[in-house]
Task: structure prediction
Amino acid sequence: MENIEIARMLAQTADLMEIAGEDPFRIRSYRNAAAAIEGFPERVADIACNPARKVTEISGVGKGLAAVVCEILSRGSFDKRDELVERYPPTALEMLNIQGLGPKSIALIIEHFRVTSLEDLERLCNDQKLRTLPRMGAKLEDKVLRSIAAYRQSAGRFLLRFAMGVADELKDYFSDRTVEAAGSLRRGKESVGDLDLLVCHADPEPVLDRFVKHSKVSEVLAKGENKASVKFGLEGIQVDMRVLPPQSYGAAMQYFTGSKTHNVILRQRALRRGLTLNEYGLFELEGNARMGGATEQEIYERLGLDWIPPEMREAQGEIEAAEQHRLPRLIELSDIRGDLHMHTRETDGRASLAEMAECCQARGYEYIAITDHSKALAMANGLDEARVIAFAEQVRHIDHQAAGIRIFSGLECDIRRDGSMDIDDDALAALDFVVASVHSFMNLEPAEMTDRLLRAVENRYVRVLGHPTGRMLFNRDGYKYDFEAVATAAAHNNVALEVNSSPERLDLYDPLLRAAKAKGCKFTISTDAHHPKHLANMRYGVLTARRGWLQKEDVLNTLPVNQFAEAIRR
DNA sequence: GCCGTTTTCGGCCCGACTGTTTTCAGTCG
Result:
């Protein structure tokens, strides 16, 4: 059993314990242990069977939870979990995803009504039954109904990070041949419905056999001569694998990468040229002679187009641009020279400044900005003015030469309801780099939110607007405001807009990136890392930026360190 | 349930908002 599975089981039990109203500190221990195990560099299962090692080596796992972990490893569950699973319907855990309902309300609802599904819950709201319970009213019923609808819309889709993890796992599994992901994953979409994998091979059978025999395949949906579909892993994501001969590989890659509308336009274009395009290749209408198909380049070229990067294939003008040889040269991961948004143990991060810097150096960065929270985020132990100044002082004394990386003193400063900064100007002036972000009052009327953000980007110390829309994928929409007005003001005030690489955010994203770029905005791509392992999320931010047609020149943290330092000087 | 210790018990990030109350519990971050 892998660490992630153990962690998930502990976290799930913690959720159930919360519904059962158990001791909050005990619950936290379960959560801490889950996080520690998930982030643990070695397989916990290996440590458990090594007589020379102890599971309690993992900080956060004591005697009690070590026994639990061993029980999980030996029989796939543990007593406490069994007891809770027995006591509550499976939908209890699902209900935690519904905004407005927490563990207490869920316990109450389950106690009073036999709720076994979200449909039951929906019915309770529609029948105005929820309001018969203490502290529940019409507004809550309304909120729950809206949240159920949003939750349903996201169900069955998976975050890009998760899908990429599965794709990487299967690529490793087929280490001796090339497996490539097509579909929305290849286009870098923030979420994907299923996974399309392509393999180039003349003899499909052994490849597909091996695919369906993967230990994580829970169900084989279909298996034919050239294609197999399975449900994969605990989450049950559908994975399709197609095996293609070399002469069709490029055509299949093109076809299965999509998007659908992009492909429709390409096929129309082929027809106008007396050709027909399908997943096997490009053919002449008369006589059926093969005109291409081994590579994507060949197909685009035969259609009079430059090769179009997958992230741009959304029928947003890329075909015209390719025809006129004016496709932008998109930013690449290797262009990134620094990460400008990260947290440390000083607030709610999990590692020290030195550890974060060391990991960034190992990633090959020239510079970073440490941007811990400001005091409005009390739950994160945000910095007040005195701590901000002390921190800037501390950074000033770091020997960058010796550290091997330039560290800029930064702050993720909360934007108050009125658009003012959560930290006084005097303290902000001590810093190199201020990211301003909204973390509260997210449901203001659009006009008030627009004024708030305009005031924020007009602040002379602010360099970046952090996660500008505030969306959380599968969870909540962004704040409502006049984005164009704020982007215009940001460009005018030299405030960059952030592409936040956190897989749950990916904010800004494609249509807004293009709109902001048209207004003359600059951007940063940063991870918002709260742990060294989050630094690797930069790849998702770069993919998102590419979907917004961003080039190296549009992004501040592609600059060499001296130019970057110059660019952020007031 | 973990951790650290002034070792075997006490502390563990908590403030703001919402909707429901009629003085505050529950949720959120």
User: Anything to note?
Assistant: The mean pLDDT of chain A is 91. Chain A has four domains: 3-154, 158-244, 249-323, 333-567. Residues 3-19 of chain A form the longest helix (17 residues). Chain A has 25 helices and 17 strands.
